[in-house]
Every structure is written in structure tokens, then in C-alpha cells.
């Protein structure tokens, strides 16, 4: 097969791939590779098709074999980094993007992937660096502006974050993340009226997200607009996911009367500053149940569940503590309050001296 025939066959394979005719396209690429196993573009497209027809792990297995044979092909390292990102193996993905650069790929190609990896790993400093590098050459990328606007507050750069969110909204008026992140900053700065407007817009864009409603209600309470807050409470109560309403009610009881924790040895008072973190799903969350222990001066973070505590609950409180320590330099301790627990949760808790479990029933709440 000469170069001209190979190119024609490759182009035919691309056309079929563009029509989502994966099996027919795969046959053509494999025919090329039988004649020329080193044909890089055919290898890459075969990887894409395997990921679609079978699975990403199947595609990775094939790709690993090709990397062993053709370690000079930097695009293979780039592709592996992208597939690892899809599998949420972010640290490995970072490594292979770095290798792709070492092998010769232009750095511009890896900026977005690296930014996303570091964002997922909650390394906001590196995420900001790579999003900024990416945006230098892609200034119209609204999604990256919103993600940059999300990361910057964790570094204390609130004004810059607001500018990024405004830029994201200018480019994409339907950016939920930009509106929610902007609202979160405004709420943290106690600019409640403007925060409410942004939370309302975010809720219009994603009406299935109950957290925006809770934040609107809490802003209204902060403004002393209790009747309006009650109306939102009714909406939340009738929300498809009623568990969030029940938990919010229990949270408010503890928030309004933290003295109930005294019988567990905690003499706490409210912390006026509001803290935002990124949860396990990558969404911005406020830590509403955070107090200061008058005796030890530690920050006490409470994770409350109206169900059994699970491994996910452990990951949430662990994430809160790590974020507060790393991003706000707080000395803190966690308390999980729930209706019992699963074995994998309590096994992990028993290994920690900075997290305590309390039965919700012991507090006397119905």
C-alpha cells in the first residue's frame, strides 16, 4: 500500500467515523495498520473507536501496547492523559500530560486538561495557573472563565473571581456555574441583595438544584426578610428531594442553639466569617455549621445527615477539614451527626482523633 492509497483509506475511515459508523471505520483503520503498524493517526483513531464501541479501559490497554512500541509518538501520551482524565484518574493524567510535553507536544494543547485535573484534585493554585494559560489563547472560552472564577476565591482573590464570572456570563448568559460562583462570593461578602439575584438566576438555569433555594432562603434570613424566607422554606419542603429540607431544618436548630453540644464537651460560638468549599461533586458549598470552641479556639465543623452516615459522609467531612486547613489555615475538628452509621464509615472515624460521631437521636430532635 503506497502513501496515496493509505491516505485515501484513512480519509474514508474519517468520513465513516464522522457518521458514527464505528465498526466500518475501525475495519478501515485496522486494514491500514496491517500494512503499516506504525501509522500514528490510524492508531489514535482506533483508540477513539475502541473507547466508543467497548470501553475506555479497553482503549487504554491497546494504547499502552502502542506506547511501548512507539514511545516517540507524543500524541499517544496526550491521548492517554485524556482517557485517564475521563476515568477520573487525575494524578495519572497530569503525569501523562507532562510526558506529552516532554516528548514534544506544544504546551498549549495540555493547558485545559491540566487545569481540569488540578481542579478535580482541589489544587486551586495550579488549576488557576493552567486556566489562565489556557485563556491566553482561548479568550472566548466561557466555561474556562467560569471555572477560573470558581477557583480564585479559594486563593483569596475575590475581586478577580468576580471579573472572571462576569466575563463568563458575558460570553455565555446561561452559565450556571458563573452565576452560582458569583452569588457565593456576594453572600460571603454579605452583599445579600445582589447574591439573591444571582442565586435566582442560577436556579432558573438549573431548577433541579435545591442548594440555590437554600442559599436564597439564608440570604433572606440574613436580611431579616423572614416572611419571604418562609415562602422559600415551603418551596424547599415540596422539592422533589425532601431530604434536603429535613436536613436544613435540623441544621437550623443546631445553628440557632449550639449549646446543645455542651453535653459532648463543646462550648461553642458562631463564626461570623462564611467559608465556601468545593464538595465531592465539584460544586461550591457554604459551610453553614461551623463554630469556634471557646476552650480550645478550634473551628468545629458539623456534617449533619438525616440518614445513616456512609463512606460518602466520611469523604464529605474529610473534604471539609482538608479544605479549611489548606485554603483558610484553620485548626479544625469535625463532628458527624447522623441516624446511625454503616461499618465502613465508623471504621474510618475510629482511626481519626479529629472527627467525632454523635447520634442524631441523642440530641432529642424529631
TrEMBL record:
UniProt KW Repeat keyword: yes
Each TPR repeat, start to end: 6-39, 108-141, 142-175, 176-209
Coiled coil: none
InterPro entries in the record: NucS_C (IPR048301), TPR-like_helical_dom_sf (IPR011990), TPR_rpt (IPR019734), tRNA_endonuc-like_dom_sf (IPR011856), Ycf3/AcsC/BcsC/TPR_MFPF (IPR051685)
Cited Pfam families: NucS_C, TPR_1, TPR_16
Keywords: Repeat, TPR repeat
Alphabetized GO MF terms: endonuclease activity; nucleic acid binding
Endonuclease NucS C-terminal domain boundaries: 247-361
Keyword Cytoplasm part of the UniProt annotation: no
SMART domains reported in the protein's UniProt record: TPR (SM00028)
Gene3D superfamilies with a match to the protein in the record: 3.40.1350.10, Tetratricopeptide repeat domain
PANTHER family: CELLULOSE SYNTHASE OPERON PROTEIN C, TPR REPEAT-CONTAINING PROTEIN MJ0263
Protein name: DUF1016 family protein
Biological source species: Methanobacterium alkalithermotolerans
Lineage summary: Archaea, Methanobacteriati, Methanobacteriota, Methanomada group, Methanobacteria
